[in-house]
Amino acid sequence: MTISSSKSHENKNVIPAQAGIQEKPKILDSCFHRNDKLGVNSSTLYFQHNPNEIYPSTEEAGKPFSIQVTVKDQGRRLDQFLSETGLHLSRSQAKHLIEQKHILLNQRLVKPSARLKSGDVISGTLPGPRSLSLIPEPIPLAVLYEDASIIVIDKPSGRVVHPAPGNPSGTLVNALLHHCKDLSGINGALRPGIVHRLDKETSGVMVVAKDDEAYHQLTRQFKNRGVEKVYLAIAHGNMKGSEGLIDAPIGRHPDQRKKMSIRTTRGRAALTRWKVLERFSSFTLLEIHPQTGRTHQIRVHLASMGHPLLRDPLYGRKGTSGMIDDPLLRECVRRMNRQALHAHRLGFDHPRTGEKVQFVAPIPQDMKETLDCLRSMT
To answer: For the segment 244-271, what is each residue's pLDDT rounded down to a tens digit?
Structure first.
């Protein structure tokens, strides 16, 4: 683990400027538009029993295709070759479709590992997108921005992004399915394109793709670390220095399977930049710039420094409010009923226009009240 920090002049009582779109969130009833001309472009799937299932958009569903192999592709595996064609399939997805008899080689059923020869003809008919076994729910959405390709949402704390065991309903995806009446196929299913996530109790800005082209473009930007993510966090204690970098791989906790940890032998690279915005007697307001997107990354990294998030139930200090003698400070702490972490700003290249865009989710009321309370004591 590497933790570095640098000292600089502290600018007290500074909150990041509210840049980007700042108008009051609005409630929309329809937030998706069809784009049947787009095919599938990504191998990352959600909400499907088989992760290799992938199909084209409704417009392309059922249309036969035929590809003739040239000399330069002779000797290649069939599934590998298909992953580099205009069908926009990953290798694992091509393998699955071959095994499901959707794709033939010279009008014969073959294995995905079949070697190609010059003049071979690959043909098939791809099935169309299928509906998911998810229930649309009339849950209001706070929308910061919306156009034909993307929707940007201010997710409230307490809202799970997508259904999972223990949270089959009441999620952001359930809300999107209700508001979005006419979905085109994204990775083989009629669903919104979730390209990143926030923990249930973390609030803030999220972008969701409306069509497959946007999904593919945004997924690639997140994978290549081309997305600017800025969080606000209230951490325990007084951070040493005014800014720094935490470089510590994160993996599953060796003993507690619900937790992540830097104490792991199979961790993945994780980088988190932090900057002090404001100091209080027992807490510090931080601006966080995660360079990677590991599960619970900010929470794990800050806890590893001895500065866990205020009211973090998994990585924080148990019974913190009851251990505080000062009644005013204790009241400040109790104003937060969840971890004090907010996804404040999100910047990326617009998937359709290529223009750099940036969106801001205002500081939520519970976090604002806590900060006001802490400031009143300084």
So the answer is: 999 999 998 988 878 999 998 889 999 9
**pTM for this predicted structure:** 0.68
Q: H or E stretch including 79?
A: helix 78-82
Q: Are 211 and 37 in contact (CB under 8 A)?
A: no
Cα dihedral sign for 363, 367, 368, 371?
negative
- The two tokens of residue 178 are 């209700």
Domain ranges of the chain: 1-26+225-378, 31-36+129-224, 64-125
* CATH fold group of domain 31-36+129-224: Pseudouridine synthase (3.30.2350)
Exactly one of 154, 199, 211, 212 is catalytic; which is it?
199
Specify whether 199 is catalytic: yes
Query: Angle, nearest 10°, between helix axes 327-334 and 365-375?
Result: 160
Residue type, 18: Q
Task: Give the mean pLDDT of the chain.
Answer: 80
1-26+225-378 has CATH 2.60.120.260 classification: no
